[in-house]
Amino acid sequence: MPNMISTGRAEIEWRSESTQKPPRAAVYLSHANAEQVLKAAHAHTATVWTGDFHNAKQVLAAMKKRVRKPGSRNQHADIQTAFHSHRMRQAQQSRVLNMLAVEIGCGFSLELPRAPDVAGALADVYGAANDEPFLLPLNRLLGFIGAHEWHKKGIVLPCLEAAIHVPFGVFSPLRGEYLDLIAQAPLPADIQTAFDIGTGSGVIAALLAKCGVARIVATDNNPKALASARANLERLGYGAQVEVCAADLFPEGQADLIVCNPPWLPAKPTSAVETALYDPDNAMLKGFLSGAAQHLTPGGEVWLIMSDLAEHLHLRAPGFLAQCFAEAGLESVGQLDTRPKHAKAFAPDDPLAFARSRETTSLYRLKAALQP
């Protein structure tokens, strides 16, 4: 059911692509300053901008300066509490910033002075054009526009010697160190088949194809990811080698190699985009490991790519993975490690810098354990 809110004139749909509750009401204004919009936001009322688009962006920037001022930190809080407090602050800030909105007309039109053409960006997110107007947070719209530009431009990956094009709503391989691990890992002897579980953009399947694996099945349960993977693999010339299919985890049959890069943090996502980052109660991780052995050919390998950031945040016990391997009937035959190279890992003002600075990303090579 769509979220409908009152504007005083009529009811209109509110979209935000998150689990946040919609505002209770909305008012249309052509001029306002950041303080006015924030005051309305704290009263659960959205401001729908009807004036100049660039002025709206300036107001949003001023709102961000006020909302994102560093707050006092509890130096005595434990690490896990600090993480959850950080996420709560992020959610609160996002909710307030999302209270500055615009009305999207039929056909994804935005009828504001100096407004860009947003139809392509919104089609990337929603697919078919809308028949009824809806309200959309300006902050979300700007994110959609940026994601659309990245989708068109693509992300050049040295290990692939090519670009991957990723739409909004699909995990983007901006952090490429885990792909370098896959490129470095020795393939099982006489490998013919591989499964890429949770393929997302199809980047891992493409890398396996480039490395010479003859037949690959890539799975995902996100329709956007499936479409993105198919488009990327066709563009790269691997369409004949890779079959992309819808599945929660495994396809039918067995493979010589099964690869998975699941979400790394066991926490609840607050939007569709975050499902690639957060895995509540380690559900996908456990499901993958518990089913992997039965889908392996004799002598085959499982490659699990994981970061230890959750351990540094005290969200996962240090021995948790080893216990999961044993319970799933898997044993380690090798491990490759790398340190992060992304900007956040070196940002001292990041609230989670204490954990990111110690993070290691690993590729665990696993085989079915011999039965006693």
UniProtKB/TrEMBL annotation:
This is Methyltransferase domain protein. Its EC number is 2.1.1.-. It comes from Bergeriella denitrificans (Neisseria denitrificans). Signal peptide: none annotated. Coiled coil: none annotated. PANTHER family: HEMK METHYLTRANSFERASE, MTRF1L RELEASE FACTOR GLUTAMINE METHYLTRANSFERASE. SUPFAM superfamilies: S-adenosyl-L-methionine-dependent methyltransferases (SSF53335). GO terms for molecular function: nucleic acid binding; protein-glutamine N-methyltransferase activity. GO terms for biological process: methylation. Keywords: Methyltransferase, S-adenosyl-L-methionine, Transferase.
